[in-house]
Amino acid sequence: MTNYRRHCTFVTAALLAGVLTLAAAGARAADLTAESRVADFATFAQDFTDNYAYLDRAQKPWLGWTERYHAAVLEAQTPERYAAVIEAALDEIHDFHAEVRAHNPHRWLPVPTFADMWAKEDAGTALVVAVRHGSDAERAGIKVGDRITVVGNQPLAVAMAARLTASVDNHDQQAREWALLSLLAGRADEARHFTVRGHDGAERSVTLQLERQFDRPAGALASGQLAGGISWIRFNNSIGELATVAAFDRALEQLRAAPGLIIDLRDVPSGGDSSVALGIMGRLLKSMLPYQHHRIPNYGQADIERNWFEYVAPRGPFTYEAPVVVLVDRWTGSMGEGMAIGLDGMGRALVVGTTMAHLAGAVSDFTLPRTGIDVAFATEQLYHVNGKPRQEWLPPVLLPDAAAGAGAADDPIMVRGVAELQRLIARSSKK
Q: Core-most of 72, 115, 350, 425, by most CB within 10 Å?
């Protein structure tokens, strides 16, 4: 089994800022000869075959990668084109939790990090079911219930057929959802052009600028109080930053007397780091408890697997013991999803919101030895402590998708979360 570096983050803050580039990868290893490209692609295919967490999938396109992409590898004489070949192979598994870290400028942007709307395929259109608050899509007036009929200059069905790959079943629901969301997120070096049909049936052209902008407050988190002393802490896509733990500690110190706490995880699309998640959850526990189950199938051999439960240990000068509600939505990704299932499984919080991003597994990074390209994909399956796969878990208080999101003035998830927290506070006061 190849050695690898394990991460629980989908996209780091450095990647979001564009710090990790192909030039940086080239500085580590500039060998892009044809021999090295061929050798490293074979290494990539073998690493995936040895370590991917979901090798039991019905369709296994990775088994033909080395042969099918050989000509493309020989033609890919620049770092950008070589990265694009590996990206094309990973596209065949329709998994947003798999990517090339050293990105080429023309890459398809990852979901949910760069997604500003969520949609489902319906009657040949993309029916918008959620719009990210503070996003370009919201500023352009795209609303829940709108239908996207044209992407670029292609009807949606044509654009989706082009995004899907011939090596797998294009009728598979997971594949089609992946293609649709990828098209809506777009490419890194292109503005997005859509034809949108509104509720009244009228169509209009919408252009979303090249540079994505997502409004959020400065700092790792925001916090405050509501009527009745209920407090809230919202993370600003920061659970991948170690300094967030100290920021959470400071906020909790200010809010320690609150009769109830809302933890808002609706702006963590890039996932995060286990150390940060453990640090946050540890302030809410008085004893060590398991929060998720890890499983590595095919651990060194096809009929051997490795399983373990990961625990959260209490930490800090005091434990916050009052009731807690966690808010989630489509932009709760990866480690954010892990925190949600963990706090639910430990019986420490009630989770309220919509379906989450449903990113599968814990991700590891593999550095290809000659070209220095970093490739990431899931190597561990993750489960709620009750045995439910994380990517299939739903909040106990499940709400329909909505336009409003974290920080919005009209925020039905927050309204429901407050109501549920008040109910929990009332119940606890009677004990």
A: 115
Which contiguous run of DSSP H or E holds residue 335?
helix 335-345
- Look up tokens 């208080």; give the residue: 397
Q: For 303-340, write each residue's pLDDT tens digit.
A: 899 999 999 999 999 999 999 999 999 999 999 999 99
DSSP for residue 220: S
pTM value? 0.90
Q: Which CATH superfamily is domain 117-208 in?
A: PDZ domain (2.30.42.10)
- Look up the CATH architecture of domain 221-356+393-423: Alpha-Beta Complex (3.90)
Contacts of 101 (CB under 8 A, 6+ apart): 15, 20, 25, 365, 373, 374, 375, 376
For residues 343 and 362, what is the distance between their CA atoms, to the nearest angstrom?
A: 18
* CA distances to 6, 7, 106, 378, 417 from 365, in Å: 6, 7, 21, 9, 36
- In tens, the pLDDT along 36-82 reads 999 999 999 999 999 999 998 888 999 999 999 999 999 999 999 99
